[in-house]
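Predicting holo structure, tryptophan bound.
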Amino acid sequence: MPETEKKKLFSAVQPSGAVTVGNYIGAIKNFAALQGEYDCIYAVADLHAITVRQEPAALRRNTLELMALFLACGIDPQKCILFVQSHVPAHCELTWVLNTVTYPGELSRMTQFKDKSAKHADNVNMGLMDYPVLMVADILLYQAALVPVGADQKQHLELTRDLAVRFNNRYGETFTVPDAYIPSGSGAKIMSLADPTRKMSKSDENPNAYITMSDDRDTIIRKCKRAVTDSGSEVRVSEEKPGISNLIAIYGAFTGKTAAETEREFEGKGYGDFKIAVGEAVADALAPVQAEKARLLKDKAYLNEIMRQGAENAARLARRTLSKVYRKVGFYRGE
Ligand code: TRP
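Done. Tokens:
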């Protein structure tokens, strides 16, 4: 990958099961659009994934699937760096050093740590607590200036900034202090189909609450038909109508239509017609992505080669930062 003066942008997604259309709209769909403007580095965060229990065979499969999904969504390995986190040892190495400038209290009070500890009470492990430091390492290794983050990762980005500044103060200028990348336009937040006051999440116990990127057409339409909607019958965005507002957002995200356009389109029509239209729009939009992903998954040699190249390119950049860090902290380098 040629080096340019463009700003670096880093993001990652965990290969921990199904990817929902919420993840797609909120993150992955935009990844491809960012490749022109920034030097993008995208990772499949398998090291993060094992902080909660994973079935090893499923983790392997999900890693390959996520890689194929990234590519199917238009991420171009010629334009950016796409790799699997565990293929680049520098992530773990930098995490160790950063651990020595992190206070346990900073980690134990993280909202996500508290939530996950409650949810996985039988498996509260050090990795779960250290998860944000690994994220900090991901970002700082590449001197990323921008990190697209959803609301649930904001605290982790704050920690990234804190640790970068702390390290720079203690050891001298080493890391770029990153900013959150807030997408222009409406970075629609997709809510649960079963409870539109909550975020759509693949860890929801009710599979009708979310649509995954691999759901087939009938499943998608059925889930949209079953989506919880509000009293009334008008297709209109309103705070009192979180269910219909969410469906309007989903429809907009997949058709490019504004809420006003959608309201006009469904004027005089009921919820039933609208829900079917939403399901069809989602299914139509996902069909080509699903087909391309299936095609890629049949070509494992190609996927392996993309991962190998991605890891090589990532490792080259990461090494540079890690060498600097090792020098700064006083590790004897034999020179
Ligand atoms: N923790 C992020 C998530 O679950 C994934 C992630 C890992 C990440 N490392 C990152 C996101 C670095 C942004 C930057 O969504």
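Strands lie at 8-13, 39-44, 81-84, 146-148, 179-181.
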